[in-house]
Amino acid sequence: MNSIIDSYKKIKSNIEKLNLKKNAQIIAVSKTFPINHIKPLIDFGHTHFGENKVQEATSKWREVKASKTNLKLHMVGKLQSNKAKNAVDIFDYIHSLDNQKLADVLSKSQKNKNKVLKYFIQVNIGNEIQKSGVPISELDSFYNYCSKEANLEIIGLMVIPPNDSNSVKYFRLLNELNNSLAMKELSMGMSADYLDALKHGATFVRIGSSIFGSRS
Length: 216
Fold this sequence. Notes:
Layout: H1 2-16, E1 25-29, H2 35-44, E2 48-51, H3 54-67, E3 72-75, H4 84-90, E4 93-97, H5 100-113, E5 118-122, H6 139-149, E6 153-158, H7 167-180, E7 185-187, H8 194-199, E8 204-207, H9 209-212
Parallel strand pairs: 1-2, 1-8, 2-3, 3-4, 4-5, 5-6, 6-7
Helix pairs in contact: 1-2, 3-4, 4-5
């Protein structure tokens, strides 16, 4: 199990070499891995973890979060509005806010549970039909709706760039969009491209297989 800690330390070291002005958070994406596989990293003191299914996150993390209150859980997958109520129960951050119906359900659920989450708006930066996210042309109006009408705490943008070996171009664009909305956080970059993302303003990187190994 020490290999997980070694991998994590290597990523931390790679990030430190960049000498970033902002502190970057590593979200250790633990989807599909059982809690006993993740536990060494929890015990090591890492606090930010990512899941992409509400049901899996709830069954895996409920007890752990009750005993370790400093843990922060991030929803990094697509969130259906019918699962939003349960997502508010278990998650601290949602990275995939992408439509008005979802914003409304999350807003209502937060009020009912007296809980405030932090949100990233997912941007469909390449206008890909198969991908979730708000088109760039609708971003300003959606941001205004979420922050002013739905009263959600929007802290930044999130992107999964097109798989065309040109992620730097998309990272640069997302950073510009984020700055235009005067937001401080930016969720982009995964195992293959997190260093490029950090060079272009990412403050949260979502890293799974480079820490936990390949998924079966």
